[in-house]
Give the backbone structure.
Amino acid sequence: MPTCDAPNLGDQGVHHDALGSRSQGFGRSASKALDCRYADGAPPSAELIDDIRHSIHEPSVSFPWCRGDLLLIDNLRTGRGRSTYSGARQILAALVAELSRH
């Protein structure tokens, strides 16, 4: 069973359960084959694919989710994805327009 202690993510993000009950309800497999080709139809080298996978996964951050957790993501600055999971879950998502700062 995962703990609900907030991990230290530094500049990469914030995780905190301070919202308590107000946040209730908010809730790749590396071997998966992807057919990727250059414009001329040639496939990239296995070394290049490994480099790309490393570049994507090396900076990733992972932590256990707990009931009531809330995650806010800046889509302009963050790549995101998910790993496999088991059990039931509910995801509620909303998109927010970019705010102008005049």
Q: What stands out?
A: The longest helix spans residues 46-57. The mean pLDDT is 67. Helices lie at 46-57. Residues 1-102 form one domain.
